[in-house]
UniProtKB/TrEMBL annotation, chain A:
Similarity comment: Belongs to the ABC-4 integral membrane protein family.
Name recorded for this polypeptide: FtsX-like permease family protein
ABC3 transporter permease C-terminal domain residues: 261-376, 659-774
Membrane-spanning residues: 27-50, 255-285, 306-333, 345-368, 427-451, 656-680, 701-726, 754-778
Protein species of origin: Streptomyces gossypii
Keyword Membrane part of the UniProt annotation: yes
UniProt membrane topology term: Multi-pass membrane protein
Matches recorded under InterPro entries: ABC3_permease_C (IPR003838), Macrolide_Exporter_MacB (IPR050250)
Keyword Aminoacyl-tRNA synthetase belongs to the record: no
UniProt-annotated location(s): Cell membrane
Automatic annotation (TrEMBL), chain B:
Entry keyword Zinc-finger: no
Keyword Nucleus set for record: no
SMART domains assigned: AAA
Organism lineage: Bacteria, Bacillati, Actinomycetota, Actinomycetes, Kitasatosporales
Protein name, as recorded: ABC transporter ATP-binding protein
Length: 789, 229
């Protein structure tokens, strides 16, 4: 019988375990790299799936309306509307239902200045319908005039079935609470009741499902088809289910683009770093591989051993990463649960399993190449292999660098990358990814800060004067019963010589045909051109009848800059021409802003107004406030320094960005550490020689650090522009995810000094990663190193 | 009598595993001497060399070289000591394969911060005096063993150290090259260079050394001064 004895499975297991235990740095690098990429991937995929699933499930169950259309009751007949069921692309239809926007009466005990928003009331005989099958949660459906069913999201938290409610001038009794996922209306009454509520002729509501409705273009096509089927101007307004869904999940949706970017970065780094680690392990263990093969291990067993050595720590990292991803998702998904009133929303198990399996497959694939190389090494060759071939590379560069007027330890270090160009390239890639992540994170953070400021047009000027002061923190301190006279307050402000300019803004909610519920309206008096609003396109209003609106409002209504929009209040309407789109993250991006005179015809009741005051340059703000408040106190108003915006979502984003960046940078540093450890091990004899010749520990550290600093600088120069490009791609996606357009000024956050600073991130990552091995190299026992041939 | 260049007093060295490499060894070497250290494997030759070179510390006793307590030096001071006071020649040359002959020879001066012109002149002078100036731009891999050892000697002498330590300098050479190196060491010693030479080779010791000690189990078993060389 001939041939070698193939070692049994147990022997292979011991080899794998010994490999994992012996190479602790590599094991730690693989574990952490996989942990990061799996955590970010689980978070990204989980948020995407878990945030959309509740809406999509409930919407499908109710056969929700893809498009809710409000038709002008005076321009179209019920018969014409019924005929729209046959328009091409329409799959199902419900209606026409009479619909009206009515103002609720102020409930008893409401705080001063509280104004309930208008209510969109539809007339329906039953909750069942081919489209928008409303779910009754409590009580029963309205059966007679005087009864009303409220949508769950529109009811006041204290309101119960049996309670009374004033709509317009009519007193109604709440008989049921229902839910419409597509938010077709906020309340339902019997059809005969609708006309009497608004004090004017009601409009018609039609609910449509289309054959194709996945994208906004499909919805737009459906709307165009309907518009062509009815008399011109008959469509008063529309509401797409895509906008409703976007509003419901805007907070989680904003996270998805950047978490996905981090997940992809993490995954790419995993492949790279694990490839480096396993290649390094193979390179450093050629002799060991030769011995194992000479003992009878087959190439397949050697290959499997190296894949297994990567998979064991990767499995641990992947399991921990999946757990971390789920933990990070909890606070974000809690908002989803709250939005749909469902039980706790969790990332589905299949997401964890799929991401985990995918990550391990990627790890196995990354390890497979080097493992195959290990398996193919010829036994005799590897046992006798020395480092001479490696030393021959980069000689010319080393020689030339030696001529530079720099300390020899530095020039020796600078020349090192040229000796092993392959390893240097992978090290540079790890650093470039780290620099990319830092650049991306700094850009994200800067843009979020800029967005927080620019996306809040209500915070303008250095000083804000409230005509209805807020109650103080002292118990029993209550707000005054009525607001101060705006004219008197304006005079007091103008009387201060330090006042540069001021304007007054008052808020209310009005109806917009097609949109369910109230739409925020901000009416300005005074020099509002100086308001802090950031224009996305168009201009600020400057004539009566002109208005500006936030991006999502324009999307939801389908109105473009240059077109008109109708605002309604208790049957009264005004038409405003939209002259500009503003960047406004407040009021769910639905506010319309115009001059007070433009909406005077609505006779709407506004909340107590606030003045925004711009001060002359060099004004002592504290002194100004003291003197102005002395004048305002008798009037019942109060001035304070304008507060910066606060957003828990932005804070959560910033925390998550910082954590993911830190993890990516840590992985990049570990990639560097691993490469430098391998390099130091390869060069231990050279280090011993240099130390024997008198190289001090400090010079040794300088040599090791400069061996990566040059690579770090070059990698930074590559990573920074890639980070800028990634930021430029992700930010508009984030804006789109929440239905807004982020102004380019808020995206262009990288100035030259910042870019220069970021370019050093590569050097910093490389040097931090090399610090530990540099210390080890400096402490290497010279006599032992010299024997390491 | 002048102070010895090397003063090793009652030195013991025990390794972690408890094995004693040196057991209370005392040795004095005067400037200008060429001392050969002989002994079987494990007798403590390399340990003694490492202690004199400041590459290791004794467990007990003191090592003074050129008036400097080597056993009390910090890592950094020890490196500076090696730079300025000793030159080392190894059995396997220990040249950096990716540096040219000149660059190898220049290293000690460059690590010391010697001005470039001064260092270059000294390197050229050494290469010429050792007969290897024609290889100045070559890489060590292209040289014969004897030539490589000459490069190593040139590098060791670069900073004009008072003490030259040679660890089996002919151990990796053929007979002719070994003789060549032996002649070189003799010539250096004749010019006043103090040498400590560790060798198994009795012929080398007799040819090069003015004094020979033999170590057995970490102590000096024989100490013979040559009458003539």
């Amino acid at each position: 019988m001939s041939g070698r004895v193939v070692p049994r499975r147990g022997a292979l297991g011991r080899v794998v375990r010994a490999g994992v235990g012996r190479r602790r740095v590599q094991t730690a690098v693989i574990t952490l790299t996989t942990l990061l990429s799996v955590a970010a991937s689980v978070l990204a995929v989980g948020l995407l799936v878990a945030s959309q699933a509740p809406f999509d499930r409930a919407f499908a169950k109710q056969h929700g309306a893809h498009l809710t259309v409000q038709f002008d009751g005076s321009a179209v007949t019920a018969e014409q509307l019924a005929a729209t069921a046959h328009v091409s692309g329409v799959d199902a239809v419900a209606g026409p239902f009479a619909v009206s926007s009515v103002r609720q009466g102020t409930p008893e005990g409401a705080p001063p200045g509280f104004e309930p928003p208008p209510l969109t009331v539809a007339g329906r005989t039953a909750p069942d319908s081919p489209v928008d099958e409303v779910s009754l949660i409590e009580g029963r459906w309205a059966e007679a005039p005087g009864e009303i069913v409220l949508e769950a999201g529109a009811r006041h938290p204290d309101m119960r079935t049996g309670d009374g409610l004033v709509a317009g001038e009519t007193e109604l009794r709440v008989v049921g609470i229902a839910e419409s996922v597509g938010e077709s209306a906020e309340a339902w009454v019997v059809p005969a009741q609708v006309a009497g509520l608004a004090g004017a002729e009601s409009d018609y509501q039609m609910l449509y499902r289309f054959t194709d409705a996945a994208a906004s273009a499909d919805i737009a096509a459906g709307r165009d088809g309907l518009a062509a089927a009815v008399p011109p101007g008959a469509i008063a307004g529309t509401q797409s289910y895509l906008d409703v869904r976007q509003t419901a999940q805007e907070n989680t949706a904003a996270f998805i683009p950047f978490v996905t970017a981090f997940a992809l970065l993490g995954l790419a780094m995993s492949v790279l770093v694990i490839g480096i680690v396993v290649s390094g392990a193979v390179g450093a263990a050629r002799r060991r591989i030769g011995i194992l093969k000479s003992l009878g291990f087959t190439p397949l067993q050697i290959g499997r051993a190296y894949v297994a050595q990567a998979l064991i720590p990767a499995s641990l990292g992947a399991a921990l990463g999946a757990a971390l991803g789920n933990v990070l998702a909890v606070p974000l998904l809690a908002e989803v649960a709250e939005a749909y009133g469902t039980a706790t929303v969790l990332i589905p198990l299949w997401v964890d399993v799929t991401v985990l399996a995918g990550a391990l497959a990627v790890v196995a694939a990354a390890a497979f190449g080097p493992a195959l190389r290990a398996a193919r090494l010829r036994t005799a060759e590897v046992i006798t292999m020395d480092q001479a071939a490696v030393g021959a590379r980069g000689r010319r560069v080393r020689h030339l660098l030696g001529r530079l007027p720099l300390p020899r330890s530095v020039t020796l270090g600078l020349a090192s990358p040229f000796a092993r160009p392959g390893r240097s390239a992978t090290l540079a890639s790890a650093v470039a990814f780290g620099a990319l992540a830092v650049t991306f994170a700094v850009g994200l953070g800067s843009t979020l800060i800029a967005m927080k400021t620019d996306g809040d047009p209500d915070r303008a000027g250095e000083v804000t004067v409230r005509t209805m002061p807020r109650p103080g923190p002292v118990p029993g301190d209550t707000a005054p019963a009525k607001a101060a006279d705006p004219a008197a307050v304006a005079s007091a402000i103008e009387a201060r010589p330090e006042t540069e300019s001021s304007f007054l803004a008052a808020k209310t909610q009005v109806g917009v045909p097609g949109l369910t519920g109230g739409t925020p309206l901000v009416a300005y008096e005074g020099d509002s051109a100086g308001s802090a609003a950031t224009m996305v396109r168009g201009r600020w209003f400057d004539s009566p009848g002109e208005a500006v609106a936030a991006t999502r409002f324009l999307q939801a209504t389908g109105v473009r800059v240059g077109e008109t929009v109708t605002l309604a209040e208790q049957g009264r309407t005004v038409r405003l021409r939209i002259v500009g789109e503003i960047f406004d993250l407040g009021d769910k991006g639905m506010a319309v802003r115009t001059g007070a005179s433009s909406v005077a015809g609505l006779k709407a009741r506004f909340l107590p107004a606030e003045f925004s005051v711009e001060l002359k340059s060099g004004t002592d703000e504290a002194r100004y406030l003291g003197e102005l408040n002395a004048a305002l106190k008798p009037l019942g108003a109060e001035a304070a320094a304008t507060e910066g915006g606060k957003s828990s979502v932005v804070r959560a984003m910033q925390a998550l960005i910082a954590m993911l960046t830190l993890m990516l940078v840590a992985v990049a540093c570990l990639g560097v550490l691993n490469a430098v450890v391998l390099d130091t091990r390869d060069r231990v004899r050279d280090l011993g020689i240099l130390k024997a010749l008198g190289m001090t520990p400090r010079q040794t550290i300088a040599q090791v650090l400069t061996s990566v600093a040059g690579t770090g600088l070059a990698a930074g120069a590559i990573g920074v522009p890639l980070g800028v490009a990634l930021h430029g791609w992700v930010m508009p996606e984030m804006g789109r995810a929440v239905g807004t357009t982020i102004p380019s000024a808020d995206i262009d956050v990288y100035d030259v000094p910042l870019l220069a600073l970021l370019a050093l991130a590569g050097v910093a990552i490389a040097v931090i990663g090399a610090l530990l091995p540099a210390g080890w190299a400096a402490r290497t026992h010279t006599a032992r190193a010299l024997r390491a041939e | 009598m002048t102070d010895p260049l090397i003063d090793v007093r009652d030195v013991a060295k025990e390794y972690d595993e408890g094995r004693a490499a040196l057991a209370g060894l005392t040795l004095r070497v005067r400037a200008g001497e060429a001392l050969a250290v002989r002994g079987p494997s494990g007798s403590g030759k390399s340990t003694l060399l490492n202690l004199i070179a400041g590459l290791d510390r004794p467990s007990r006793g003191s090592v003074t070289v050129d008036g400097l307590r080597v056993d009390e030096l910090s890592e950094s001071a020890s490196a500076k000591y090696r730079r300025s006071r000793i030159g080392m020649v190894f059995q396997f040359f220990n040249l950096l394969d990716d540096l040219t002959v000149t660059d190898n020879v220049l290293l000690p001066a460059q690590l010391s911060g010697t001005p470039r012109a001064q260092a270059a002149a000294r390197a050229a002078e050494l290469l010429a005096s050792l007969g290897i100036d024609r290889h100045a731009g070559a890489y060590p891999g292209r040289l014969s063993g004897g030539e490589r050892q000459r490069v190593a000697v040139a590098r060791a002498l670069m900073n004009r150290p008072p003490l030259l330590i040679a660890d089996e300098p002919t151990g990796a050479l053929d007979t002719a090259s070994g003789m060549d190196v032996c002649e070189l060491l003799r010539a250096l010693n004749a010019d006043g260079q103090t040498i400590v030479l560790v060798t198994h080779d009795l012929a080398l010791a007799e040819a090069c050394a003015t004094r020979t000690i033999e170590l057995v189990d970490g102590v000096i078993a024989r100490d013979v001064t040559a009458v003539t060389r």
